[in-house]
Amino acid sequence: MQSDPEHLSDADAADAVRIMVKEVRQRLESLLRAGVKEVPFAPVFARRAPGARTASGPDAAGFAAEGDPGTILPAAPSSPAPAIPQPTVAPRPEGRPAPARPAAPAAATAPAASFFQESGFDSPALAAAERLVVLKDLAEEAAGCRKCPELVAYRTRTVFADGDPNARLMFIGEAPGADEDRTGRPFVGKAGQLLTDMITKGMGLKRDEVYIANILKCRPPENRPPQPEESANCIHFLERQIEVVRPEFLCLLGRTAAVGVLKTGLSMGRLRGKWYRYRGIPTIATYHPSYLLRTPSAKKEAWEDLQLLMTAMGLRIPPRKKDQD
Ligand code: URA
Q1: Strand 161-163 vs strand 249-253: parallel, antiparallel, or unpaired?
Q2: Cβ(114)–Cβ(144) under 8 Å?
Q3: pTM
Q4: Protein residue with least CA distance to atom 7, ligand 1
Q5: Is the minimum distance from the CB of 162 to ligand 1 under 6 angstroms?
Q6: pLDDT-wise least confident of 54-58, 173-177, 214-218, 259-263
Q7: Which terminus of the chain is more exposed, N or C, with fewer CB under 10 A?
Q8: Atom of ligand 1 at shortest range from CA of 173
Q9: pLDDT, tens only, 134-167
Q10: Whole-angstrom distance between the N-terminal and C-terminal Cα of the chain?
Q11: How many angstroms does the Cα of residue 15 sit away from the middle of ligand 1?
């Protein structure tokens, strides 16, 4: 991996330009789908000094800043500034009625500049082949990790991730369960089946088009929630996974994922339905599939959250059954 972006070889520089062009094109297409017609370009491309961080506090689009979950947007109806692609500007599939959640007033629509955030990463994005190599090394490092003695004694194997390292969307769950510990793949048990349905039947994507990882790489005994020190020991693996995959969107499944990534103490009931940023990446939180299995009445809200995500990603939201009749 080339670590000094100022001294790239010609091949690496060409690769970096290709990735940059691809990312800019994806972002522009995403903005266009959201109804944005103009973007300012000068300040956006200004290079940030290595190590510099975006100021804390919500940005112009009303995103909560990294590590600043206390400044989360208020609920949409009273929100002075909405999150990214709102139903007020996004093209809606034919015949689809306004979403159940009242849209923020059009006048409060975020200025285009705030959509087009600088990357929150100091390192250059990696080429596809490099991502595979770096993630494989990282998975090996996780497999050799012995920081949490109880987890090490209990695990059959570590469970690193599943899916496309070049995915636009990354799901983050809590920790492997029995099925994951047996197979080495995240989200393959009952909760995994529900997540797979949410991805395939709900969002119309293939499971292997997204990237799926967890806060913990080891199964906690009796599937107990991760202890704070276990999450703290493991989080650097996930942080690196996000940095390498650099998805366009993050979806946090359940409170453990939200605590780990957004460093928030809020309940999922308060967190869901709004946008945050993690290192510049638009991030949404919703209920964990295990919770949805125990509480089917929450599926409606989870589907609303997925629709927010789909709108932002420019994915078609299928008409509701009763609209088809
Ligand atoms: N629950 C999770 O959070 N992750 C898995 O991999 C499986 C179940």
Answers
A1: unpaired
A2: no
A3: 0.70
A4: 187
A5: no
A6: 54-58
A7: C
A8: 3
A9: 999 999 999 999 999 999 999 999 999 999 999 9
A10: 55
A11: 35
